[in-house]
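Troubleshooting log. The previous structure file for this entry was overwritten by mistake, so regenerating from the original sequence record. Sequence copied from the archived sheet and checked twice against the printout by T.R.
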Amino acid sequence: MRHHFRPMILAFALPLLAGCADLSNGKPDAWYTARGAIAPRESGRVVVCHGFGCNLKTAYHFTPADFAKMRRLIGNGDAAQEREGVRRMIAWAEKRVAPTVGSGDDIGGLDLFNAGEAGQMDCIDEATNTTSYLLVAQEAGLLRHHHVGRPVARGYFLDGRYPHATAVLIGKTGSWAVDSWPYRNGALPDVMPLDEWFARSPSG
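Regenerated output below.
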């Protein structure tokens, strides 16, 4: 009986993963509501989640000088160049808000010892904050080849993986994970095709 168990799990999990991929095409609003987070509502204002699971929230308002910096970092190249620019912009944004949020020493990856600590972020915080930074860039007209999708999650314990979430960009050629969780504050995030992200383990 046991040797039939894993195929049954996979048969159950794969439709769920496909459903998560489909959800990335939706607007991010439902993600914020479900997690008690606050979406950007006015130009340049973000509410940064930290303390794990958006337990703590700190507002930050990007200035005109900040937007000029974002524009330079993202650039005006083709879609692939824009994704590289997004990596630079997200890394910069994390460092920019850190003095206000207290997240300068945020540890990357799976770090259960710091759950609940101000300034420390789990994947829910990271996916939410990255989405917020992308949304303010989108609102400012800085994204020419992509738009911001709804964050998605992978891993159900049943498939041997810890649950993990990522922000999403959607372009003409597909959807892309923008994942800053594996790395310390201010490091370049992973940007990869969403299907590839779904196939990875939590540490990869």
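Residues 79-101 form the longest helix (23 residues). Archived copy saved in two places this time.
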